[in-house]
Amino acid sequence: MLKVRNLSTGYDGVPVIFDVSFEVREGEMVSIVGSNGAGKTTILKTISGLLKPFSGEIEFLDKRIDRMPAHEIVKLGIAHVPEGRHVFGKMTVRDNLLLGAYTLESDTDIKKVLEEVYEIFPRLKERENQKAETLSGGEQQMLAIARGLMSRPKLLLVDEMSLGLMPILVDKVLDILKEISRRGMTILLVEQKVQEALEMADRGYVLQTGRIVAEGTGKELLESDLVKKAYMGM
Ligand code: ATP
């Protein structure tokens, strides 16, 4: 579904990602794991069109997207749930969700997808008229994911959703992602929480200072010496 080939990118001509290649197949949950500053967010921003590659190719459903503007990439079916939640605090939960549906044209479709999203996130339904800033951190993260789903994406990009959450909430948010994946969504997740992200992934990639240094099934990576030594203190 998504193929990234020999991607190099960065900021103001300074490279941060070097010759990175990976793929996400339909229905998979794939995790890219790595420490702070490894370049995980930069990869997602490049896929969703917020950053342009220096070189390399990105293909989504057999179409080149690396030169497309971000709004066209959303229309093709990629939704990006950014790091740090970014919900609109002064707006209600419901209005935040409706913003996510801006690519849908008919009111019937919007109503339908809102109902589907409320089915996955009953807590958001209970709080639909509440301002987003009054939600707890975990609920705001749920809202960010839910808003991503409102565009009916084929591929969901999720950036560091564990950031700033208490461990118990991290587990809750991960459970939600597993549920969304079980319902058939294709998910590319980037995470610093290496163990959690690899345990739930079908496949994973390890990113170190802008380069992919290992790949495999979640289980293979968890059992690899590299991951054990570098990320699990063994
Ligand atoms: P984190 O988990 O801390 O978000 P990350 O793996 O997502 O880390 P990135 O945010 O992709 O890492 O950052 C990779 C590198 O790019 C870092 O060295 C960072 O300082 C640099 N960088 C990120 N954003 C910018 C920017 N807007 N301008 C210049 N450099 C940037």
Automatic annotation (TrEMBL):
<dbReference type="InterPro" id="IPR017871">
    <property type="entry name" value="ABC_transporter-like_CS"/>
</dbReference>
<dbReference type="InterPro" id="IPR052156">
    <property type="entry name" value="BCAA_Transport_ATP-bd_LivF"/>
</dbReference>
<feature type="domain" description="ABC transporter">
    <location>
        <begin position="2"/>
        <end position="234"/>
    </location>
</feature>
<keyword id="KW-0813">Transport</keyword>
<dbReference type="GO" id="GO:0015807">
    <property type="term" value="P:L-amino acid transport"/>
</dbReference>
<comment type="similarity">
    <text>Belongs to the ABC transporter superfamily.</text>
</comment>
<dbReference type="Pfam" id="PF00005">
    <property type="entry name" value="ABC_tran"/>
</dbReference>
<dbReference type="InterPro" id="IPR003439">
    <property type="entry name" value="ABC_transporter-like_ATP-bd"/>
</dbReference>
<dbReference type="GO" id="GO:0005524">
    <property type="term" value="F:ATP binding"/>
</dbReference>
<dbReference type="GO" id="GO:0015658">
    <property type="term" value="F:branched-chain amino acid transmembrane transporter activity"/>
</dbReference>
<keyword id="KW-0067">ATP-binding</keyword>
<dbReference type="InterPro" id="IPR003593">
    <property type="entry name" value="AAA+_ATPase"/>
</dbReference>
<dbReference type="GO" id="GO:0016887">
    <property type="term" value="F:ATP hydrolysis activity"/>
</dbReference>
<keyword id="KW-0547">Nucleotide-binding</keyword>
<keyword id="KW-0029">Amino-acid transport</keyword>
<protein>
    <submittedName>
        <fullName>Amino acid/amide ABC transporter ATP-binding protein 2 (HAAT family)</fullName>
    </submittedName>
</protein>
<dbReference type="InterPro" id="IPR027417">
    <property type="entry name" value="P-loop_NTPase"/>
</dbReference>
